[in-house]
């Protein structure tokens, strides 16, 4: 894998450097690059020529880049259950190192994989994938620590929940559909009428919280909101697990359907149950913390055009019919801040062509304010056929740019790290070579935060040391390297807001902006 960026290395190596703060402040100007070089008090020039900064001259991608970090069955993290606190922390830091190398700006961490929790919750037992024992307290708070560590790298932390899964099959190390094998404090042991076993009577059976039972739905919402209210998460994220995929079996929700179906067809009733859940949790999240983003990563096909004229030019399984997920409706109703369809097919695939599905999704979000990210199939790299070519994901990301996609999430972290065929390196170098700012959700657009106030800059050999006063109520700063001849300034780094903001980079002139927790950006100011 690629090493850390030069700037990141410099920043880490020089954490202990004592910065000499100059008693000179430099105001922002209205034109770009209209000053000549100056000398610092000790004679070292600080940029030549110096520049003032203008918003129109800033160059930065607004693009979410992330990866899914899967905890269920220890697919990605932790590498196995029952590790020590120190080892879990060491492994997580390694994943953040990878995110930095990839120039990602967000991680999506599985914190409720199967009715359990990676935080001390009154609504769910401790995860067996963390401790090795269902319901065992590890003696520390992994969620709080992971958020703090992630934010220290100025990455967003999106908490990933599987809402309705209550257990994992016994064949994969879970409790299966056996109440006695659930953690002692598992809510389904206390409320067995909330549980549906599926596929019933098979070795792969597991428990689901019944989406048609209002009390079960309310409990799931409360479990998610517990994390929203108590932790500084940046987003709430679901994938496509609501009702289970059919697998040739029926989901036995006869009891709740008889009680709450009200004469609707089973399919319409199930879709209404999921609609209600999505709408309710969206409203509750935004009421609690308006800046927390809510998004979903559904199966990539809503409906085929053969089933609905509004559907996509595909011939595959439909989330609308198979798992009762009316994803297009959720977008059009604006219940989501973003949607991440899992477009896990190659360009040219006959049943679901990436090059045809992508424009359908781009058209679906148009005018709604819901942002389109794409779930990318890094896990398929190296398979026979088109996936045996290292250019497949590179070409898909090129199409994303053509259709104005706002970002990508890669499945999963282990596959990103593996870099099979050099395909990850390839798309990283072509599409993620420079940092990017996380897009601002339309719902969260607000007045710009205050700009930084420079306190000085000095030359330290071939490096420039920048300092500025901390800005209240912002989460991060963006640093742009100025190009006086081109009259532009290009994003080179972002850092988390702290009490003594400073930055060290190659000798040059720099512009700095503030960003609030909704990623609104201030006017730029010259700091070096």
TrEMBL record:
Keyword set includes Transmembrane helix? yes
InterPro entries referenced in this protein's UniProt entry, alphabetically: Divisome_Glycosyl_Hydrolase, GH, GHL10, Ig-like_fold
Span-the-membrane segments of this chain are 12-33
Query: Its Gene Ontology biological processes?
Result: carbohydrate metabolic process
Glycosyl hydrolase-like domain location is: 63-384
Q: Which UniProt keywords apply?
A: Lipoprotein, Membrane, Signal, Transmembrane, Transmembrane helix
| Coiled coil, from the record | none
Pfam families for the chain: GHL10
Q: Which PANTHER family does the entry mention?
A: GLYCOSYL HYDROLASE DIGH (PTHR43405:SF1)
What is the protein name stated in its UniProt record? Uncharacterized lipoprotein YddW, UPF0748 family
Cite the source lineage: Bacteria, Bacillati, Actinomycetota, Actinomycetes, Micromonosporales
